[in-house]
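Standup notes
- DV: blocked on the single-chain target, sequence here:
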Amino acid sequence: MINHRLMEHIDNTPYRFIPFRIYIDMHQRFIQKSFKPMTEDGKLTTLGQLLSCFYPEAVIEEEPTEQESPDILKSYSATDNICVKIQGIEAPFNTPIQWLSEHLSHADNFLYIIIQQRKQKS
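- DV (later): unblocked, structure below
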């Protein structure tokens, strides 16, 4: 019940901050911070933007496509040798952080992001 109240938002207003933890290659190394789901001018922030701020080695900036929402600032993709998973799923880098938090956060309200090296194909 308390968790539900903490994660509730009224009138579709985004959360003020979303807590996250990035685990890097499962070597007991992690980054724990919070991130705003919207910019000051009301644009949605995405998984790619979060990673570009806190672990830029994992992302490549791209030109936005016509299909992407005009509310998204920039477009990103993973580098060839990196795999980024949340709850075991490779989420697209243009996914808004607000949506990820609402649907994939753990019971402690943290969004756990795993960054792994891709296995080399033989």
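- Follow-up: Strands lie at 18-24, 30-35, 59-62, 75-78, 82-85, 111-117.
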